[in-house]
Amino acid sequence: MSEWLAGAPWMMLAIMLPLSGALVAFLLPRHSALVGLGASLLTACAALVVMLQVAADGRQAYRLGGWPAPLGIELVADGLSVLMLAMTAVVGVAVSVYARVYLADSPDKVRRFWPLWLFLWAALNALFQAGDAFNLYVTLELMGLSAVALVALSGSGPALWGAMRYLLVSLLGSLSYLVGVALLYHAYGTLDLALLSERADGGLQLAVPLGAMIAGLLLKTGLFPFHVWLPPAHGSARAPVSALLSGLVVKASFYLLLRLWFTFTPEGQGVPLLLGSLGAAAIFWGSIQALRQKRLKLLVAYSTVAQLGYLFIAFPLAELEPALAWSGSVYLALSHAMAKGAMFLAAGSIMTQGGHDEIDELDRVVERMPLTLAAFALAGISLAGLPPSGGFVGKWMLLQAAMTQGSWFWALVIIVGGLLTATYVFRVLGFAFTKSPHEHERHDVPATMEWTALVLALGAVLLGFAAPWALPLLEGVLP
Amino acid sequence: MKTRHAATEPGPVFRIGLALLLFAITAGLALALLAEPVAPGVAGQVEAALGDSGAKNHVTAVLLNFRGYDTLLELAVLTSALVGVWALGVAPDIKETTPSPVLLGMNSVLIPLAPLFCAYLLWAGASRPGGAFQAGAVLAAAAVLYNISCRRPELRLPSAPLRPGIVIGLGVFIATGFGVMGGGRAFMEYPAGLAGGLILLIETAATLSIALILASLFVGGRPEGEP
Amino acid sequence: MSSGILFACGGLGLLAIGIWALVLRAHLIRKVLAINVMGSGAFLLLVGAGSMGEAGVDPVPQAMVITGIVVAISATALALALVLRLANATGKPALPEDRERDLMDSEER
């Protein structure tokens, strides 16, 4: 039994389980929540098994249809892939558990949510394990369409606008990526990333397609100044959907960016410096916008813009300190997924309780829902990079990379960004302790919702302790 | 509907800037396109493996066998788009107008021919250009023509068969992928002798789903009474 | 060589036209059309570039285009359905400017 289990193609199952789950959930709308939750747990298990396999035996590959690349398509899982798979599994299960309770009072939404979310999960797992440039395009589109449909699920005017803008940006980004794929295949005659990395030898034939692909992915990741679509989409969706978008979907396009960067290792200093500067601008602009927001969910959405900026600081720092800078960036992405997921889930609970999410009007939330506020505060600790959180480990590594090469500018950006983060987190916490001048309706929040957010936030804080185990996985993946 | 806003009209400077930027992008792409050397693609390998693929047409062999996983995900994209459109709400009403006699005359010829043409495209796909998507699109086109003719009898299709029909394409694709896995074969690794039959099975199911999905996408929302 | 290069360059032209319209046109249907023009450009580039080599026509780009077309039609359908809902909900088939959105956002609540 155990041998059979170990030999099962878990990489493929991590994609096909959610895909089949989506079909069944669509087919049986009345049981979609049950089917969805079951499929979520199975998918998470498959993803975790893939991680254990890679941790034990190193890089894994699976030939779909039995055809070797370049004729066929291979799934590939290395350390970077499995960290992303595990991140998706953890946040995905938390969101699934939360959504089952959160959506329980609107049966109409439940039936729509589960198939779309499972399609999205299948797309994410497929993207993290794809070893083929064109296959990545299809997964990008599956991810984009299901994410857009999830945003539109809430049905309100702002959500529809957010979804529309998001869809246009997402399609433009994918097409830009596709143009790059077309030129790469034309020049090198293969779509397999491993073969491409052997054959690509720089020059115009590599630079132009790579530029097109990176530009498209920056658009999808929402790096400043391409972030304008992000706050409306993430801020207007339902809370579990926002958690998925901010936590996972933007990370997927960032992962692909890293994957391309590691595959082709482009030379030159201009582009890394540009990406880093945009990242720094994103940190400041996003944080200042977050401070100015009146609504909690928009604050959290702008915080995503700022935190995404951090991920790009690694590009200029990787010139001299590749291992530290890339590990820091990846670790920040992981901890941001958990912290931001927890934050949006907590915001959803606060919104359910008070019927609104005006920050000024938060009415003694600390007395009414201490667990949720604790979740928000813990997530804030990880975002701001206080020890022992995962965010601390990531930022510390980036800071170390900056200090050892004497780049004081980047070190300053990292530190000031952390202070700004703490400021907007404390702004919310401050209002949560005081009494609001107006009376608000009050609703009971199911304990499951409060606990899920808290567990996820605790995970983000405790992630710091997992670093000695998780970071060695990246060895051999980083350039 | 007039929705012109003075603020949304970009000025000439912006237009010139955009034109220059687009010119630079196009020139860059063209340079990369014309650069030498150009590597041969995998056409040779496709040719060599064609005998084992179960299809005589190169494109069909790539779509359904060598890169069948892409096609599977493509069907997932199509299905997820339909789920997304249904999630937006109930289908909007079509304004009933008297259809033109040209449309009705055309319908009486095209709609009965469509299933025949669809079956031919599906069958021909094995050895000539054709295949599931083309066949499904023809069938969906017939459904769209029927839909806009407004001469619909009160044919309230119950919702039950619609859902299974929509998922059957992807469902059969995944089930076949798992079904062939015995004996050390990988997911979707069709046994040499059975490949032709399995591909036809997958394509037939996919045709049905593609036709249903495309026709339902045209309607623009879920049917009334759909849970 | 021959006609492939012509198709590929035509594809690049369509891409540029598509981006132009996507940026400048406010009406959402036009934006969706612009995305479709860009998509056709990308597909033309794929098949054109695929038939530029001496080895004859490569089936892989053609298969990629068929997959791409299905993806494009799915995206277009979702986009058009969204435009329809937006026009119904707000009375205009264009995206609001940021300021406008903020105003309507506060009105709604």
Overview of the structural elements:
The complex is a heterotrimer of chains A (479), B (227) and C (109). By secondary structure, chain A is an all-alpha fold. Helix content of chain A is 77%, strand content 2%. In chain A, strands 1-2 form a two-stranded antiparallel ribbon. In chain A, strand 1 and strand 2 form a beta hairpin. In chain A, helix 2 packs antiparallel against helix 5 and helix 17 (390-404) packs antiparallel against helix 18 (408-433). Chain B is mostly helical and 227 residues long. In chain B, helix 3 (58-66) packs across helix 4 (68-88) and helix 7 packs antiparallel against helix 8 (195-219). The two termini of chain B are 34 Å apart. Chain C is built from four helices and no strands. In chain C, helix 1 (2-24) runs antiparallel to helix 2 (28-50) and helix 2 (28-50) runs antiparallel to helix 3 (59-90). The N and C termini of chain C lie far apart (61 Å). The chains are: A mainly alpha (479), B mainly alpha (227), C mainly alpha (109). Chains A and B meet through helix 2, strand 1, helix 5, helix 6 and helix 7 of A and helix 1, helix 2, helix 4 and helix 7 of B.
How would you summarize the topology of this molecule?
The complex is a heterotrimer of chains A (479), B (227) and C (109).
Chain A lengths: L1 H6 L2 H18 L4 H26 L2 E5 L8 E5 L1 H24 L4 H23 L3 H20 L4 H32 L4 H7 L4 H18 L8 H7 L2 H26 L5 H23 L3 H22 L4 H33 L10 H4 L1 H15 L5 H15 L3 H26 L13 H24 L9
Antiparallel strand pairs in A: 1-2
Helix pairs in contact in A: 2-3, 2-5, 3-4, 3-5, 4-5, 4-11, 4-14, 4-19, 5-6, 5-11, 6-7, 6-11, 7-9, 7-10, 9-11, 10-11, 10-13, 11-13, 11-14, 12-13, 12-18, 13-14, 13-17, 13-18, 14-16, 14-17, 14-19, 16-18, 16-19, 17-18, 17-19
Chain B lengths: L11 H23 L8 H11 L4 H9 L1 H21 L12 H24 L7 H17 L10 H21 L15 H25 L8
Helix pairs in contact in B: 2-3, 3-4, 4-7, 4-8, 5-6, 6-8, 7-8
Chain C lengths: L1 H23 L3 H23 L8 H32 L7 H11 L1
